């Protein structure tokens, strides 16, 4: 992001959903980035933020490994808003007191507010979302208590002179009735920011940044045909035209007919150099007998690097080495992989295939123009670049592909079963989404499925088919509603749709005798099974 862009830094104290804060701020028209909570005051100054927001986090300020802050950050004169742990660490650092309460407070709470800067224009009593056991019990000098609940006396405090405002509750969560208004008051009234952030006028800046970085070098793009890498392909082809080489590594773990479709779209619609690498056998050999999900991801990711490097080497035979590798890494990949660039304290959920280290002998300079954007922002960018809806609204598909949808080890027979069952799930739910679109005219209809697929667990069960006992595998149908994959709910599909999926799968896919539907949201589950 260019340095002249006014930005808000979100200090990450380990809130698994801290990125929601960054989202809400961007949705209000102000650019925001997540940074580690232990930045020093000097580091903060160098980044010239217009405001700081301190996230929540799971620790108690008194725990041995509790994240702390450089106290000088609080003296920089930059306006600060803190939530939950952010509220407590500010109180603690400035000489207030944090104590354990007898009763925690979780979920909706009724907040009573006093006339104050932060709550200006909001009702005297409002619903907020709480999630805490510790609480501030004494405010630091210069602070005024501006809100309370029946359980929590100091639910918000402010020091207008220092421009520090904190709340025990979470304004970033939708269930907080006036959350957006409170954030807006802070950004626009306290910090005097303006709405300057919009994804629509971003393409030109990104294209210019790529041109500057690349010069007249050539670039290899890891292209999967998904929306993220396709948007990067569009950006790069506009930025550097024929210097771009799109490399599609077919690891054999793709959905039914997918390699043919990707090749067709990119060799027909994009005027770029397109290479289809047939690595199916190499991947199957490498994955033989491997059942641990993290190990599968690491093997697949490492082999991706090797495949790209091999192409770069081959294409460099004319003498000029290719040092740039572009890929469609997006912000949630980084956050969920353990915060490579945010450096935050959130725990590693999954190692995204595109973020694991290079193996020995492989090296590239990475170009990741989307590494600060969320999925729906990437989709808007795709539309503004003129990509067709069929690519922009493709459902996400993970880089490690069906390898992380086959629980346990992988073989050709399991791949065949999963591909066939998955094709039926997609066919039926594509139709379902189309029908919803026809009825509502809204491509983002609340109830349309965002991602849907089949998962093959590593078990068998008894069934009866044509009077014969069967002992075959079940398949699990997963269909979720989401907007950015950070949270998701299982899709409340009509029973007749589920019934058709079930009867078609059992009738059409040999090796399956049972169909289950996953009714878990994220959290506590994740969208994928591994
Ligand atoms: P989870 O399962 O973590 O997935 O809820 C969130 C979103 O990310 C996709 N996903 C991946 N995408 N490489 C990717 O490119 C990966 O390793 C990976 N793992 C999960 C998943 O399909 C969902 O949309």
Task: Supply the key terms.
19 strands; globular; 5-stranded parallel beta sheet; 9-stranded mixed beta sheet; binds xanthosine-5'-monophosphate
Describe this entry's structure for a reader.
- It is built from 14 helices and 19 strands.
- The protein has 530 residues and is an alpha/beta fold.
- A 9-stranded mixed beta sheet has the order 2-1-3-4-9-8-7-5-6, sandwiched between helices. A 5-stranded parallel beta sheet has the order 12-11-10-13-14, sandwiched between helices.
- The radius of gyration is 25 Å and the shape is globular.
- The protein binds xanthosine-5'-monophosphate.
- The site of xanthosine-5'-monophosphate (XMP) has 16 residues, from loops.
What's this, in brief?
Helix content is 32%, strand content 22%. It has helices at residues 19-27, 41-47, 85-93, 179-190, 203-214, 227-240, 258-269, 280-287, 293-315, 331-336, 375-384, 389-392, 412-440, 495-508; strands at 7-12, 31-36, 51-54, 80-83, 97-113, 125-138, 144-148, 156-159, 164-167, 219-222, 244-250, 273-278, 324-326, 365-367, 451-455, 461-465, 468-481, 489-490, 512-517.
Topology:
Blueprint: E1 7-12, H1 19-27, E2 31-36, H2 41-47, E3 51-54, E4 80-83, H3 85-93, E5 97-113, E6 125-138, E7 144-148, E8 156-159, E9 164-167, H4 179-190, H5 203-214, E10 219-222, H6 227-240, E11 244-250, H7 258-269, E12 273-278, H8 280-287, H9 293-315, E13 324-326, H10 331-336, E14 365-367, H11 375-384, H12 389-392, H13 412-440, E15 451-455, E16 461-465, E17 468-481, E18 489-490, H14 495-508, E19 512-517
The protein binds xanthosine-5'-monophosphate.
Residues 297, 336, 349-350, 352-353, 396, 398-400, 451, 485, 522, 526-528 line the site of xanthosine-5'-monophosphate.
